[in-house]
Amino acid sequence: xxxxxxxxxxxxxxxxxxxxxxxxxxxxxxxxxxxxxxxxxxxxxxxxxxxxxxxxxxxxxxxxxxxxxxxxxxxxxxxxxxxxxxxxxxxxxxxxxxxxxxxxxxxxxxxxxxxxxxxxxxxxxxxxxxxxxxxxxxxxxxxxxxxxxxxxxxxxxxxxxxxxxxxxxxxxxxxxxxxxxxxxxxxxxxxxxxxxxxxxxxxxxxxxxxxxxxxxxxxxxxxxxxxxxxxxxxxxxxxxxxxxxxxxxxxxxxxxxxxxxxxxxxxxxxxxxxxxxxxxxxxxxxxxxxxxxxxxxxxxxxxxxxxxxxxxxxxxxxxxxxxxxxxxxxxxxxxxxxxxxxxxxxxxxxxxxxxxxxxxxxxxxxxxxxxxxxxxxxxx
Amino acid sequence: xxxxxxxxxxxxxxxxxxxxxxxxxxxxxxxxxxxxxxxxxxxxxxxxxxxxxxxxxxxxxxxxxxxxxxxxxxxxxxxxxxxxxxxxxxxxxxxxxxxxxxxxxxxxxxxxxxxxxxxxxxxxxxxxxxxxxxxxxxxxxxxxxxxxxxxxxxxxxxxxxxxxxxxxxxxxxxxxxxxxxxxxxxxxxxxxxxxxxxxxxxxxxxxxxxxxxxxxxxxxxxxxxxxxxxxxxxxxxxxxxxxxxxxxxxxxxxxxxxxxxxxxxxxxxxxxxxxxxxxxxxxxxxxxxxxxxxxxxxxxxxxxxxxxxxxxxxxxxxxxxxxxxxxxxxxxxxxxxxxxxxxxxxxxxxxxxxxxxxxxxxxxxxxxxxxxxxxxxxxx
Lengths: 380, 380
Fold this sequence. Notes:
Two copies of one chain form a homodimer.
Chain A: H1 2-11, E1 27-28, E2 40-41, E3 47-52, E4 59-63, E5 73-74, E6 76-77, E7 82-86, E8 93-101, E9 104-106, E10 113-116, E11 119-126, E12 143-151, E13 156-164, E14 178-182, H2 191-194, H3 198-207, E15 215-218, E16 224-226, E17 233-235, H4 237-252, E18 262-267, H5 269-279, E19 287-291, H6 304-307, H7 312-318, E20 321-327, H8 333-347, E21 352-356, H9 363-373
Parallel strand pairs in A: 14-15, 14-18, 18-19, 19-20, 20-21
Antiparallel strand pairs in A: 1-2, 2-3, 3-7, 4-5, 4-8, 6-7, 8-9, 8-11, 10-11, 12-13, 13-15, 16-17
Helix pairs in contact in A: 4-5
């Protein structure tokens, strides 16, 4: 009966309250799993990591982006084989990371995991002094719904995440505009809700009256199909959006299914996909955003996107918002987005550029971008 | 522009189709992350694992339960520092696992992660020849909805997962019965949807007409509050269910809010919590299930649960179903559940016992239990 007894004990486990605090005012990161004391975040944004590897010869902290640290940091072996390191003050927001244990990629058992870098990685949440906009508040909360559907483009069952505003079920005759919102390379349909906290951002904006209630649809930006050459596969995601995702959403939810009430945005790779998808389908979208967009080289107002932007007057008649953003610390995304915006403005297209101060190619840039972008949508 | 170019390349990445198969008929596990080739499952249920750790001196596969392997298996170092091992034929279902790299706990970068063992662990899905009941089929699909709410018991915002049947939004005047469904020790509210695939099990049963459309509510079975002694914390989950969760669900969704239309079930620790919660609140539940329940020692029909079962006639007037289950390979849960059922039957309470052949204390036992339990609910 030993294991039964053990499980019974779990029911009445007692945790000393003193274990929750330390003298140095650091706190367990909000991204930690239940009861994990490390990583710990200090008031100035430094983060202390710990990993138990008694037999390792070298353990390093590998930041998944420059916001946490500029390079791999060597950890120091302490008594009992516990390795530790404290970073310099990190940028605010969620940062992917992992340990390199004698060179091998190892997740932190103390961290929640986040799908990024094409696998589940650790992540650490560093508070933003101005970060209340993505925290849960005492306001009506929408739902993030898992929606499975069959996509003819890939011939597979796929999962979309659909944010539905708090009022949706109480207004059975009302229809809503839709924002299609895409993750970056190596991530998936879970990214915006989990890493991005998009649901809290939306809840807060809607509760403040700064954005109209809307649906937000998140899908996986990988839709591999056999290449026409017969050799390998290509990503048919833009086609899937048009042929499968939008028709399914409009058939399943109470949407306003016209272009004036349909937006698309995405981050990094998803920003590039947003441009590719919308520029080829200007009859289907009126609001467009690329956050830290992977937009390729050689942008030209006349020839890029098959000339979709060449006739500014015609473009302006249809597109209500063309929006670019980037963190000030993410070269070359920053310069690229700013330069494209300038070129469009000189060309007569009133594209908008938003910059996130002090952040790099990471989720805090994209949370802030979403928070700035959404209030601009679906107005008169 | 190097990183922009790299991201642009991701958009058109080509994967040779030949990389998807090998000559030995093994296949990447369904639980792998996108494009990961290992772990691979063989037709007979053997699983081959691989981990890249050139500098490690010893790498072992640690099974998170006996269904995958009976003990730690040493992995063999190959060329380039890649370690491999193949298990004996494993039991069907999802098995937690991790690697021990020179003794340190390490997740498999090729695996999706699953919250179990109080942290995110790797998991491998071994197909069940009779496993179609938990696979996605071409039937109407319900949604799993993330619902945030404030719980007065703990003074915190908490997340419930709510399965809503496919027909829910199309029947705005219809009300539904509710099953409260709990995970086991070290897991959380995500377990039943992710590890358990409860949504596909429900979709399939409802589509077959074997179960009425119902809501299924999953919360986290940890609700720590300060102990009355002033020393440490205790788990107030049963109180949270009664005071916070049920009122919120009945206020938010179109439920049938009476005891005849309310069930509770759980696995392992959640089975124990189900018994504790329902036996103290027989006026609120009519259908009760404990799957591999952590039910404690010394069960006695007269005295256990403060005598809730002592008067069989009175108990039978109120409780429509009392259900226990276990896998045949999970001693002592199996014997315990069977013996309790027998004692209850001899006492005049028609408790039901279901056994899952060949499975242990793992998710396949609980998927099968749910699949057997749900059709028994909410009948006349």
